[in-house]
Amino acid sequence: MSADLSPLTLETEMPEKQGPPLPQSPQETINTIVHYYRGEMGRMAGWRDRIDRTSNWAITVVAAMLSVSLSTPSSHHGVLLFAILLITLLLLIEARRYRFFDVYRARVRQLERGYFAQILAPEGTQSFKWSAAIAKSLRRPAFLMTYKEAVCRRLQRNYCWMYLILLLAWGLKISSPKISSTGVPFGHVQSWSDFTENAALGLLPGWSVMIGVALFYGVVAYGSLRREEHEGELAHGEVHV
After folding, report:
1. pLDDT digits (tens, 9 = 90+) for 30-65
2. CA dist 126 → 46, 122, 132 (Å)
3. Residues 140 and 209 in one domain
């Protein structure tokens, strides 16, 4: 194999060479910071756009499944349970994207608080903790929140309301009377046994489906009401995603 086609050399195995020159004047440093800020803003905006797309997909799924399930009395309530499954998948995807977005947002906010805000309205003595934090993140990028925290935060922002809408629609579906093939309603829901009968899903009895839905929504309620121990960027201001 020729030298041009050899595998990429690890950074630690590369021969020591002189790198690009560092800024030598305050003006060069300012220009570097400005260009870096623009780059981080672009990366943050890109991940923010991915988050919004996932939320838009989830809203579209909810609207489509509600239309299919509630448009005709004869449609099965399992359509709404399938919608809950799809929303959960989109929530997990969005939580992963949110963790990446949080890394780049933190760098942007540290620049804004520690540098630009100090230029516009200096407060106290100048501190370089923000630049040390950004340098550490650039040398060894790491997530600032766990996957569980990201799921809970997206639940609190958007998905708890989608889950609530689907739960109300599902409750309405299993409490509505069934429709015969001729379009005449029969079997009006009058007792708990009627609820469990309507909630049956294939071979699963209605009571097991209802217990499963109750347990799932217990987890959703916990995630929606949970408060983080370390607020991170939420400790600075009220405008957050």
Report:
1. 899 999 999 999 999 999 999 999 999 999 999 999
2. 32, 8, 13
3. no
